[in-house]
Amino acid sequence: MKLSGAEILCEALTRLGVREIFGYPGGAILPVYDALGKSKLHHVLVRHEQGATA
Predict the structure, then answer these.
(1) Domains in the chain: how many in total?
(2) Quick one: what percent of the chain has pLDDT higher than 90?
(3) Residue 20 belongs to what domain range?
(4) CB atoms within 10 A of CB 4
(5) Burial class (CB in 10 A: 0-12, 13-18, 19+), 37
């Protein structure tokens, strides 16, 4: 089974112990959002791009 880059990213974050990610959806990142739905990662939607920084 071949994995997409987005699926590999989600799997790598999960293996590193990441549980939550912050983000702002857009056209270029949509494949990652599709993969997030299949992962154990919890996504926090921010209202503004600067709000996604910590």
Answers:
(1) 1
(2) 65
(3) 5-52
(4) 12
(5) exposed
Given a cut of 90, whether residue 51 has pLDDT beyond it is: no
pTM value is 0.80
Provide DSSP, 1-49.
----HHHHHHHHHHHTT--EEEE---GGGHHHHHHHTTSSPEEEE-SSG
Please tell me the total number of residues recorded for the chain in this structure. 54
Contact 9, 32 (CB under 8 A): yes
If DSSP codes are grouped into helix, strand and coil, which group holds residue 53? coil
Is a pLDDT exceeding 90 seen at residue 41? Answer: yes
